[in-house]
Q: What sequence folds into this?
């Protein structure tokens, strides 16, 4: 077949959710395209691993500086493909750059070879441990934070010495391509970080391509499909899925700060945040005062100004369904209500006294809808906060008992007296439990996630008693058992 006979590559477009205008056109990469990208990445991975920590740190620092220089330009692509406000996009980039910096600077200390104690019984051995790169890591990302979220895997995987093939969401392919281009320039065109674009099939092909690991961020439902595809080749997976995060307001909380956090945590990015605040449990004694503040702060917001439209058009119907279900079950609408989610630009909604079996309480909303429920005390708040299958993040407002309440929450991250702060602290691992997934990005755990431990025991001298040899004698075993009785038997 000649080049002219070859079937034309299928393409798709990304569009601006605010206007419907086409932002960019991208190829629908086939399984063969994905396999070829992974094969190229394998060569780059060998080069990259050979650079060592110093070489990688230097190159990643160059990339970090380039991202800072190009911050506004990349933020404009984020805005065009997601519809979020410009400063939200810039904030997302600032945080991603900070993570890149941390990952590059801490890789050697976290992963480099170190000696560990060989123990009394094996005192003749020198024991060392290091964390070696896996090779090629496949990253599948969502559209809601199309830079910050996948960079939690990309930056940490690269810093750990891997090459990356990234499949961005079909809604934000332009962001993924721009991100990869910015590193390609610095890496002299080496395919260290490539992007494959397309729909779910392209992501599924990445799962089956023989990559050493898949780092997936997206919905719980898709995570199950990804895991099933990865099971075919025993490809390990890291799963960052959805959440139904609660904010608990204790009786001694700073109510203005708590209300501010609830409204920002629930409404920013139009509620399309995996660790966004979706449920508030406020203790009775302060419920009225707190709720009044939430209502006032929410009424001051304007959809289209403080936050944009639903990035994914079909999401408005999900939000609408949850509002209708809650109202039908007896909830009270304090701000907005039926009709607030009739368009792609959803108006902010606050619902109170929402029955706990409503979908607004049990299912991820991903829209600017806040549920505020009164509880008699903190114990009940904790019980309800923990009563979902999800377990991603949480927020606690309490002057005296913040840490104590945080420790009782079944989730991966908690912010006390602020909201979503854990995501901006690179040293803190990020990830959930239950339907929110498993594995960790960020921090030392996030670096180790993209490595395999390499344990080496080197014999320094032979012991007088050989017990792991066919030369073993009963006298030798008797001496060993005597030693164990003295050392471990007491
Ligand atoms: P989806 O689950 O719809 O998609 C996630 C990614 O998976 C996309 O790139 C998608 O491609 C791809 N994909 C779809 N089908 C398959 C398949 N069969 N095999 C492999 N890949 C596939 O999630 P959204 O993009 O809608 O993102 C929103 C979700 O992400 C929310 O649930 C949110 O809570 C969660 N999230 C979790 C975070 C966390 O860190 N825990 C952070 C941010 C978001 P395509 O878009 O082309 O269909």
A:
């Amino acid at each position: 077949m000649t080049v002219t006979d070859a079937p034309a590559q299928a393409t798709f477009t990304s569009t601006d959710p605010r206007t419907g205008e086409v932002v960019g056109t991208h190829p629908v990469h086939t399984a063969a395209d994905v396999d070829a990208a992974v094969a190229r990445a394998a060569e780059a991975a060998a080069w990259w691993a050979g650079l060592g920590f110093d070489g990688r740190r230097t190159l990643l620092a160059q990339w970090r500086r380039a991202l800072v220089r190009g911050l506004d330009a990349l933020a404009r692509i984020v805005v065009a493909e997601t519809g979020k406000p410009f400063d939200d996009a810039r904030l997302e980039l600032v945080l991603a750059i900070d993570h890149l910096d941390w990952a590059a600077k801490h890789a050697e200390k976290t992963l480099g070879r170190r000696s560990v104690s060989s123990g009394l019984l094996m005192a003749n051995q020198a024991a060392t441990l290091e964390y070696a790169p896996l090779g090629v890591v496949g990253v599948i990302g969502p559209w809601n934070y199309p830079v910050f979220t996948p960079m939690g895997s990309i930056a940490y995987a690269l810093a750990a010495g891997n090459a990356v093939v990234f499949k961005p969401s079909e809604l934000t392919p332009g962001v993924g391509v721009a991100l990869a281009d910015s590193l390609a320039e610095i890496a002299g065109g080496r395919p260290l970080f490539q992007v494959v674009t397309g729909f779910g099939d392209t992501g599924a092909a990445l799962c089956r391509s023989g990559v050493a690991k898949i780092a997936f961020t997206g919905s719980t439902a898709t995570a199950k499909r990804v895991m099933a595809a990865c099971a075919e080749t025993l490809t390990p997976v890291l799963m960052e899925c959805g959440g139904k995060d609660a904010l608990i307001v204790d009786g001694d909380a700073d109510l203005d700060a708590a209300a501010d956090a609830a409204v920002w945590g629930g409404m920013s990015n139009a509620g399309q945040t995996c660790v966004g605040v979706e449920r508030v449990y406020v203790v009775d004694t302060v419920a009225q005062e707190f709720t009044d503040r939430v209502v006032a702060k929410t009424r001051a917001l304007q959809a289209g100004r403080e936050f944009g439209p639903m990035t994914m058009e079909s999401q408005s119907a999900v939000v609408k369904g949850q509002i209708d279900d809650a109202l039908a079950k007896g909830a009270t609408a304090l701000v907005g209500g039926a009709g607030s989610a009739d368009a792609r630009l959803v108006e902010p909604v606050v619902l109170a006294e929402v029955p706990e079996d409503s979908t607004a309480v049990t299912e991820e909303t991903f829209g600017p809808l806040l549920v505020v429920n009164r509880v008699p005390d903190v114990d009940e708040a904790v019980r309800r906060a923990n009563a979902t299958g999800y377990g991603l993040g949480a927020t606690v407002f309490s002057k005296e008992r913040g840490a104590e309440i945080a420790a009782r929450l079944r989730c991966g991250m908690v912010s006390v007296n602020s909201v979503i702060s854990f995501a901006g602290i690179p040293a803190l691992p990020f990830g959930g439990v239950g339907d929110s997934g498993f594995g960790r990005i960020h921090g030392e755990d996030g670096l180790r996630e993209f490595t395999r431990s390499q344990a080496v025991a080197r014999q320094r001298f032979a012991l007088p008693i050989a017990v792991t040899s066919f030369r073993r004698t009963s006298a030798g075993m008797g001496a060993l058992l005597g030693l164990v009785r003295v050392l471990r038997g007491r």
Summary: The chain has a mean pLDDT of 97. The two ends are 78 Å apart (CA to CA).
